[in-house]
């Protein structure tokens, strides 16, 4: 079952660790992934670089985005850029909330 459940149907959760993901969430993730796979470099060739101050927080255990991809984001930023690496998985706010909060406050105060 994907998408919105029909009348009388219940969503079947997928359980991973201590959180649940419903099938429609998985479908949404696959859609986002598929869009990324369909991007052609020509689609973004004419876009200007980001000029606002940018903070990128990446975690060492992020299986969704590898380090090389995270670090290469800097190539698209012409403004002030700060790249921070935290230990943990993709779920930085849940696993390193205090450190993320500190980084965000410092970034926003310096902007």
Please tell me about this protein's structure.
The chain has 111 residues and is an alpha+beta fold. The chain has two domains: 1-47, no CATH class; 48-111, no CATH class. The protein has five helices and four strands, in the order E-E-H-H-E-H-E-H-H. The protein has helices at residues 23-38, 41-44, 67-72, 92-95, 97-110; strands at 13-16, 19-22, 54-59, 81-86. A hairpin with a 2-residue loop joins strand 1 (13-16) and strand 2. The protein is globular. The N and C termini lie far apart (46 Å).
Sum up the structure in keywords.
4 strands, globular, 111 residues, alpha+beta, 5 helices, two-stranded antiparallel ribbon, 2 domains, two-stranded parallel ribbon
Q: Regions with pLDDT < 50 over 5+ consecutive residues?
A: 13-19
SSE topology string: EEHHEHEHH
Alpha carbon gap, first and last residue: 46 Å
Binned, the helix content reads 25-40%
The tally of domains stands at 2
As a percent range, the share of strand residues is 15-25%
Largest sheet entry = 2 strands, antiparallel
On the 0 to 100 scale, the average pLDDT is 80
* Class computed from helices, strands and strand pairing: alpha+beta
Return Rg in Å. Answer: 18 Å
Order of strands in the sheet with most strands = 1-2
User: How many strand units?
Assistant: 4
- The count of helical stretches stands at 5
Overall 3D geometry? Answer: globular
């Amino acid at each position: 079952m994907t998408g919105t459940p029909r009348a009388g149907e219940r969503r079947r959760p997928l359980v991973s660790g201590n959180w649940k993901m419903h099938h429609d969430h998985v479908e949404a993730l696959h859609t986002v992934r598929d869009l990324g796979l369909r991007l052609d470099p020509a689609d973004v060739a004419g876009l200007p670089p980001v000029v606002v101050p940018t903070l990128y927080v990446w975690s060492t255990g992020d299986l969704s985005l590898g380090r090389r991809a995270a670090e290469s984001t800097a190539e698209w930023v012409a403004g002030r850029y700060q790249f921070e690496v935290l230990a943990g998985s993709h779920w930085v706010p849940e696993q390193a909330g205090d450190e993320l909060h500190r980084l965000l406050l410092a970034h926003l105060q310096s902007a």
